[in-house]
Amino acid sequence: MILILMSVLIFGAVSVAAYAAYTTAVTERNPVTLRLRELRLLHANTASVAYGRRPTLLLKLIAQVGGFLPASDGSDAMRTGLVRAGFRRADAPLIFLGSKILMAAALPIAWTTFAYFAARPLGNTFVASVALGFIGFYVPTMFIGIRQRQRHGDILSALPDALDLMVVCVEAGLGLGAALQRVGVEIRLASRQLSDELAMVNSEMQTGVSRTDALRNLAERTGVEDVYSLVAMLIQTDKLGTSVAQSLRAHAESMRTKRRQRAEQMARKASIKLAFPLVFLIFPALLVIILGPAGIQLLKALSADR
Questions:
Q1: CA–CA separation, 132 vs 138, rounded Å?
Q2: Number of neighbours of residue 179 by Cβ within 10 angstroms
């Protein structure tokens, strides 16, 4: 059963890789595909440099493998999640799906191979292979979730400082577009993620996208609630014609207040988080150290009385 399972998995993996390599080679020789790719890269370079990076052969193969999965209704949601995790490539969804397939096949194959060379079954090999395939299929999803949380926290922590810089730039006489560009350059040392997002907003406005749409795209790409409120404030200020500097200053003060409140909340949660290690790890060791010698002397005294 193990040999049959290994043979089927290896044959499937080799067949998929061969087909992906063949499809990639045929696509590379197609002049129409090459021309469309050049136009797509040219259009992407006007919006972001990240889109113009040439993919490696491994990423091409993974994307080809991911193309075997049928398109689902949640493709737009998947692309939004990848963009919020920092993956803005055009073929990022295909690479993501291909990674899920490869991980679902690689973990059972590695487990079965290890059990075969160990010359002893490590439990029920078939059940373990199915469980590892299920786990491997969701490993890329967990990785994307972790990246989203890290990027969310990075943008959220740097946003108040960016707003303060934006207030200074606007009050110095710069327009909103020039202020976004300047803040994107200055905030890069503190937060590269926020700097890239602000640079992309400025690039979109320079390529003809309206300010409202560019700001809304910023909120969609980040997925941060504070960025949504900032974008809503800027759009409302632009429509009503009120002072941008005063609105930004008031919003910056509220953002600093929220950041202080989040820090206080985390400080209050620290005592609760320390309860488990204190009760189950530190207190037992202290009890053994303090009461241990007294217990030994008590046992000696009782044994001497007998």
A1: 10
A2: 24
Q: Is the pLDDT of residue 143 over 70?
A: yes
Tokens in use for 82?
């990848």
Question: Please, where are the H alpha helices in the chain?
Answer: 2-29, 31-47, 57-66, 75-84, 92-117, 125-171, 176-186, 192-206, 211-222, 225-240, 244-273, 275-277, 283-305
Is residue 147 pLDDT above 70, yes or no?
yes
Kindly list the distances between the CA atom of residue 63 and the CA atoms of 58, 103, 198, 242, 294, in Å, as whole numbers in the listed order: 9, 14, 29, 48, 67
Of 27, 28, 93, 38, give the one whose Cα is nearest residue 66: 93
* Contacts of residue 197, Cβ cutoff 8 Å, sequence gap at least 6: 155, 184, 218, 221, 222
Determine the Cα–Cα distance for residues 98 and 68; give it in Å rounded to an integer.
8
- 12: Cβ–Cβ under 8 A, 6 or more apart, which residues? 105
Residue 98, pLDDT score: 82
Q: Domains in the chain, start-ordered, CATH in brackets? A: 2-148 (no CATH), 150-270 (1.20.81)
User: What pTM was estimated for this model as a whole?
Assistant: 0.64
What are the structure tokens assigned to 102, written together? 């490869």
In this structure, what token pair is assigned to residue 133?
């395939």
Q: pLDDT tens, 244-291?
A: 888 888 888 888 888 888 888 888 888 888 888 888 888 888 888 888
| pLDDT of 218 higher than 70 | yes
Q: For 153-167, what is each residue's pLDDT tens digit?
A: 888 888 888 888 888
